[in-house]
Write a structure and sequence with these properties.
The complex is a heterodimer of chains A (344) and B (329). Chain A is built from 13 helices and no strands. By secondary structure, chain A is mainly alpha-helical. Chain A folds into two domains: 94 residues, no CATH class; 229 residues, Orthogonal Bundle (MetI-like fold), CATH 1.10.3720. In chain A, helix 1 packs antiparallel against helix 13. Chain B has one domain: Rossmann fold (3-Layer(aba) Sandwich), CATH 3.40.50. The longest helix of chain B has 18 residues. Chain B is globular and about 70 Å long. The two termini of chain B are 34 Å apart. The chains are: A mainly alpha (344), B alpha/beta (329).
Amino acid sequence: MTQYFIRRLLLIVPTFIGITVLVFVITRFVPGGPIERMIAEVQQASMQAGGSMQSAGSGVGAATLDEDQIRELEKYYGFDKPVLVSYWEWLLKVVQFDLGTSSRYSEPVWDTIKERLPVSAFYGIVTMLITYFISIPLGYYKAVKHNSHFDHASSVVVFIGYAIPSYVVGIILLVVFASNLEWFPMGGFYGDEFEDMESIWQQIGDIFYHAALPLLAYVAGSFAVMTFMMKNALMDNLAADYVRTAIAKGIPFRQAITRHAMRNSLIPIATHFGNNISVIIGGSFLIEKIFNIDGLGLLGYESIVERDYPIVLGVLVISAILQLLGNILSDICVAVVDPRVQFR
Amino acid sequence: MSEPLLQVKHLATEFQTEQGLARALDDISFEVNAGETLGIVGESGCGKSVTSLSIMRLLPKPAGNIVQGEVIFDGQDLVQLPADDMHNIRGNRIAMIFQEPMTALNPVYRIGRQLGETLALHNPKMSKSDIRDASIRMLERVGIPAPERRLKEYPHQLSGGMRQRVMIAIALLCNPEILIADEPTTALDVTIQAQILQLLKDLQQETGMAIIFITHDLGVIAELCDRVLVMYGGRIIEQADINTLFDKPGHPYTRGLLKAIPRLDQPPKEELSTIRGMVPSLFDFPPGCRFQNRCDFVQERCRQETPELETYNDGQQVRCFRFRELVNE
């Protein structure tokens, strides 16, 4: 088993290289890269200055940047070398934890990411905890009370939450509870007085006060799948022969569920566990945008729009590693809960 | 003989299905005496498993319900017994083993835990080491080699025959007075089947428990049972001791079943005799005798009236109007 996981860990290396090569090459060939942007900016600036009467259509760069300047820029961004050579240089730096410098903020990529990561991780982890705390008991109760009024009513709620995209839930929450009722703030990760707060508890309270609506938006979409996975797994197991055996042994029905059926029903939930981690830490840029949260999702999205490739690649590095580790974590979870699983 | 150990009186069980209420058991009455082996035989869907599940009150809820009758065990009616008292009887005084040893054990727990659970449940004062010792002794008794090691194994590490032995061990841990065996050998291959049957016989001799053995295999019945119930369409159609049943089968259905067994004294490679037609679903049984549409001896009366289960010589009970004429043929 240990051997298997060591092999899995080693396999991260080629997978990681595969993912990053692909994205690196794409960034090279997608139009509108940083140099073209810079040219456009200079062009715009000169046009606004009114000094130029040249028509906008005549030659892209010639009007504003000469060949030497462009070459210098290409050198700065490493575009003067073949793709694979500059990829290799980038990779060597990544291995030394140097993700380069953001072309937009002109500060180290790692610092930018480091600033946002805890915000996204906070939302991700809290969302996951809430989801598990709702879904597992709810799924359990729905399975035991299958076909009851409670079961039907909760299904309606769960499916509505599932059917409405989370950003729409976010907007509705924002309009109702922040704008109309003014119960919650409009957005942000914490309030303006955060730094001046005396105790850590006040600060935590403030974070959750700001987090309430976005968390609701996150949770509304994610607990449907988990709840039904739990309910269906438990129903399958309740009908299983070994539960009948347990009852035939003289175990009361409730205990047969909690001791026997539950453990088996957690197997599919455990399979999902690792995936959730990686997906959730990435954050949803739509929800982050709506609630004005400076998270990783928003950062990644904006840097793609702005062609800030060092950040795009930096975010990719983080999320790829999380995804790969998450997959392995899933497998470990499955191996822990299901003795039949043998990794060789 | 004194009071029978278990008396089933006029038991009727119904299932709620999408097509409506299905009466899976109708007026089932029989007795089980201490130390004897009662066989219940019949085709799929005749109600033999439902009978055992009804006695144990293991019917799938909420679909299956006992609607009538009593199951008297030790002076109490199990049908009316509060759930808590039923928990004390299940696995302790009446135990049960099932058809599918592959799925009857919980896949995620070690054998030791699944054995110990029953003991701890019914003997709360027993210490951990006593439970372990008793588990090992029990595994030895059911013929499992290296029992100490097996305790630490999971069900998937055992073969089907071994798992059924574990099931038997679990069932017998608390020395039950009755063991209900619901087709325990059907899923096993023939050599393992013979071993399990021998094991049950030996264990019965040691403990003196009664066995209710449910099967569709008359060969198994012949090997194991003292008395036999033959069921068809949720009703008992014949009840007799083992010799009477095989020598002088009373009901045309029983005769049909016996004829359908290949025999050594028959010329080989001949077509086997079969009972014509199919078992109807519970909703499609004909009026009158439930077997009339497949019976070779059917008369007008059989189509109109339902025959009662009547007692004849040697305590043989048969549900057939024409028993007396047919038996002398």
